[in-house]
Structures
1.
Amino acid sequence: MRTAIVTDSTAYITPEERARLNIRMIPLSVNIAGELFAEEVDITASEFYNKVRGAKEFPKTTQPPIGEFAALFEELANDYDEVISIHLSSGISGTYQGAVQAGEMVEGIDVFAFDSEISCAVQGFYVLRAAEMAAQGCTAQEILAALADMKQSIRAYFIVDDLAHLQRGGRLSSAAALIGGLLQVKPVLHFVDKVIVPFEKIRTRKKALKRAEELLAEDANKYDKMDAVVIHGNCQKEAEEWLAQLAATYPNVNFKLSYFGPVIGTHLGEGAMGLGWTKK
């Protein structure tokens, strides 16, 4: 059985990684002042932040059309027996459901959609693991079992400068955003049951980042080896400094740097920071 791996652009997997592991990517899009850009195709993260900084109109995000999924799955049917399509949390986007529906439309290939229940480079951990296993000849069922096991150890926490972005985009309740704004807190956020909720309310950005590190430390002491990622919203220097400090402190953790691209950046805003990890 030959197994293809598909994901969406919000995994923010580099073109080099996609080429090396033969990962196919379908982009989500961002609408800026009436102009539609496919992320990772038409616009880079830095271009996005430059475009929307100070803009009067809030950008909007758009999931891929079902037809794009169907066309890709039909193309893959020429060379593969099955496909695993891994997507950002179904609680914040209809992308996963689009893959499910497209999979039911095509013939000649078995499509297994996988809800990562998360997003960004942490979603990418699933994609990279799946692609590595597919390259070794593993079946879809073997890969899906491994991904289900990964869900037990995957964690991600993020800090935003302004909760209004999440509230306007419908990804956080108005009450939670209002409380955060009134108290001037920098809440640590995470995913629970596929949606974004506050984990803890913390007064300063520095303390919020420190709290995320404390949560990482708990698992770094529990597992022999972990993969982790520092994710930033156009604040690369700060992210690089944090990564260097973390890497020096936790030698059993393999760290990498990633970013919040246009689609996720629309909802988190510039200056957001995230920390995610999984056991190896």
2.
Amino acid sequence: MKTGRPKWTAKRLQRAVQHVQGEVCWNEPLAPLLSLQVGGPADVLVFPSDVEDVIRVVLGARTEGIPLVVLGGTNVVVRDKGIRGIVMQLKQLTGLQEEDGHVVYAQAGVRLPRLMQFAVGHHLSGMEWAAGIPGTVGGGVVMNAGTRLGEMQEVLKGVDLVNLRGHRVRIEASNISFAYRKATLPKGIVVGAWVQLALSVKEQVEAKTKTYLQYRRETQPLTLPNAGSVFKNPPGDSAGRLVEAAGLKGVRVGDAEVSTKHANFIVNRGTATADQVLALIRKVRQTVARKFGVRLQLEWKIIGES
């Protein structure tokens, strides 16, 4: 996405984040924060220290008219020229607690594997499907994260959200519309979620989790930088099957490669750029469309300036 010159000044950008208690970094590279390890810098990168700090960022950006992007680590590609305005990363929001009725509240920055391990440690079942998924609770809610074994909507009870006016609200899962890799939420920032789990025998949960994790290790390129599944599965078919049938496994553009282990993954072989990744995506889509008449839809989000 090409944009014109920003309509705000450096002073307005500084004022927008002047009350933030967490870490504030200027012209900060984003690639190290992303699982695919590509992408340009942010004008300003903010790591809020808590939910109140998130509210400060939201209100500062709103007052000064600065665009605000919440950045997860997976399922996203940042273009090589980076992101203008404020980028917020919620890695400091890592609170976890069990509540009555086998409900677990997890803040948005909690990694899904950690939530799964927390559940196992408390003899709770329901998160086993998340074994090996590298994303966070916040991203998992927004993307309705899942695998063939389960997905977020099956356990989600409620969402803790800061809306664009800086108000903290609870959204019940019954009021959220879910689709494949998507949850329709009010505009705002997910800062936490409540998941409804079930009491189980710890050894049974551990065994099930181990089986799921082993399956992912055997079938997905977990040892190389990647951003998860690239394309959504078309109705009644598999994106990975189509890409493999098109003869695209191992095809590269620079250091971006269609995984030889799973064709619906693109991996970074070393020094891939976002441009190379996007060029490879175009090549895959064009080839699959030409050979099978199927237009693959992206599961990833593409953001930033080209």
3.
Amino acid sequence: MTTSEPLNQDWQHTLDLFLTFARNEKHYSDATLDAYQRHLVTSAHYFSQFVNSWQAIEVENIKGLLAKLKSRNLSARTINLHLSCLRSFYKFLIRKGLAKANPVELVKGPKFTKPLPKNLDVDQVNQLLEIVPEDTLAVRDKAMMELMYSSGLRLSELASLNLNDKQAIFNGLLTVTGKGSKERVIPVGRKAISAVKEWLKVRAEFANADEVALFTSKQKRRLSIRQIRARMKKWGIEQGLSANVHPHKLRHSFASHILESSGDLRAVQELLGHSNLSTTQVYTHLDFQHLAKVYDNTHPRAKKK
């Protein structure tokens, strides 16, 4: 099932139609588009051994692909992602009248358990953020981490903030553009506002006069995603945390702590910018104390008389 050879022109043309749709109408990220391209090209090379077009593929061909993927000892997650790409692709073909049925719908991928993302508890977050800045870098990093934990920002959202977002931050309501070019308004806490103000007092050391980015590097340009990851990892070590600190963990900690306090899954879904509630259900978890309280207050056989 090699993917090094170019696809037949007809196979490639249909695939290109879908990728153009995914880019221009669904606004998928480059990473998502790359994943679709990779998985669909792999599928096409396999299917082309047995049929002459995407439209000729049947359930048995999908089952054959599934068996082939399993034989390569791929993880259940990877195999299911492969099938998910095919499923979306055929939904597109049906909408465009290029296929009559979705052969993937009748094929189930291998079962797997989605592990809960690990978060920092409240004490660990406080330990991380109790930084006493001794230089400009520390002032900047504290502002970034306070803002991410305060508002549940994605790493890409944090990195793309601009200087003209400062007034929205100061007002406590920041508008960000997330996945699929969807905008959402998120609150900003007082400690994050204070930390950003402290950063703006010294930002000129790290930025040219025409630089629009809010967070900048020693090179006086926008701080990259890779650099932000490295700085947060560094602070986790310096602040004595046993857990590895990375941006996604701060976002997850934000969601978990809000959910544990409120129990409002819908509100957390909105704050995180998730399109589907099921994503939030996997991404977050209620602690046992909250579940026990809900049980005691609502279950007919548990209510106190």
4.
Amino acid sequence: MSRRPSHPVRLMASALAAGALLTTAACSDDGGGSGTASDTAAQARAAEQNAARQTPSGSPTSSPTGSPSASPSALTEPGAKAALLTEADLEGDWNQVQDADKWRDRLLVGEVDVSDFLTAKTDAADCQKLLDGLYRDNLLGQPSGPSALTGFEQGDSRLLEQVAAYDRAGLDAGLKWMDALPQECDQFTATDEAGEKRTVQVTEASVPEVGDAREGLHVTVQGTAADNPATLTLDIVAVRVGTSALTVTGGGLDGDEAASVEQAVRQGTERLKTVLDGGTPSPRPTNLD
């Protein structure tokens, strides 16, 4: 245990401290200043406070004057419409239609048979969501912002594109959900109100390396149309660009339209990126194969 210093020692320490203070004041006077020791201490405190208020070099304490410009990644209603594909973006005999928002394919209507699944409740619900989303054209869910839609016909085939702004978390969740569908919904049965059964198969589709994230599905539905056996073939691709996305669905009773869907995805992604960067898409693309 240490011992406290004796009374004489404490007195000597106090005297030394007082002498140091006097020396500091004297040095200040020698520099031409007229302040006392207390003035010097006050000046030191003021300097410390002033330094504390300074920010590191290159880090201003306030934003520049003037209101900030709108984010280039924010999709507007006019921007969504400008980002839509045109006939010039597609090769072949695709003709743009005016009523694509009313398209509904009855082969996509049906209640999923739960007995087809080992994990019935989870997988059957996801497969039902797939059918309903394809029928209602909202596979990624309801947009949280502006959206626009267009469609094209070629024989008995159709090509549908939607451009929309979404909540980022919901958009990522939608793409993750799509990624799992080929495993969860490999093959299942759906039954319509009349008791007619359809066989649905879901596989992964090839997707071009565009946008920030992407998913693709190839879906076939075997049933009847006009009392005749029919197979509906669809390729679906969703691409995220920032917090916006485009979804392209193509196919029909004529068969596979994968090549047209891929071309539409490439052109559509380029148009969306141009709009989000504040530009205007070219009316006649020059990068078609």
